[in-house]
Design a protein that fits this description.
The chain has 13 helices and 13 strands. By secondary structure, it is an alpha/beta fold. The strands form three sheets. Strands 7, 8, 9, 10, 11 and 12 form a six-stranded mixed beta sheet that branches. A five-stranded mixed beta sheet has the order 4-3-5-13-6. A two-stranded antiparallel sheet has the order 1-2. β1 and β2 form a beta hairpin. Keywords: DNA-binding, Transcription, Transcription regulation. GO terms for molecular function: DNA-binding transcription factor activity; sequence-specific DNA binding.
Amino acid sequence: MPKRRLPPLRSLEAFMYTVRLGSARAAANQLGLSPSALSRRIATLEEFIGKKLFTRARQAMQLTDEGAAFHEAVLPHFEALARAVEGQSESTSLLRLHLGVLPLFGSQRLFPRLAELRRLHPILHIDIDTGPHLEDRVGDTLDAAIVLTRGPSSGLHAVRLDENKVHAIASRELAEVIGKVPDSDLLSKQTFLIHNELPESFTAWKAALKLDDFEPAAIDHYDSGQLILEAAAQGLGIAIMHDDHLRRAADSRLTELYDLDVDSPYSYWFVCKPGALEERPVRMFHDWLVKAGL
């Protein structure tokens, strides 16, 4: 059997960190290297494989087409090697992730798929936190979070998980009373159910109906999407929610009002501190989440 030449692992590590963090400076800081030392390691890898992996302009480094192809080819094996080493390490019996999750996302999208993650990474265990102000606690009491927001703060690594439409959702009995054609007088007699942290969904929905100045009889505020859906199913009002929430709830008591295509101002995002991606629990969950397409 011919002898295989393995790439210099420190150089490969420098390359993977630079791609993952999107910055040579961030990668150098994470690895405890000077920028010039990081650059030398990457140059060694380029010399080894005979391809230019990055274009360099001042402080910026961008993947070349060959660099992108190399990363795509190597990433699964790099992760497999990390998992193999972790599985054989006597010092790694358990990895723990402190994750903030909104309850509705957890019940509808995350929990039905967590068994896949457990099979892939048996040593990874997750502490779930559904408390308030998840984004503000990332990097403090939370390693990472899945939040519903217009856009996370600039200091966080963020991955957008979806784009949504805003729907008005009601019980089937109430929907029959309201009818299929928007009637401002009839709607003004109704109670609307709005999430405390998503007020602009209602604004977007009213604008789509050209009812910007419309005021309902009452607005009841909730801090739980699950409870909003249940309140709507019980006929307590019209819920302003995402279409995905209605679809995944699969509740025969509920239906959509009107046939509207309203873009939501809010999306679900995965967020963590940029440096946290190099912590094994965060990296494992992040990579699985993105690949799983939750």
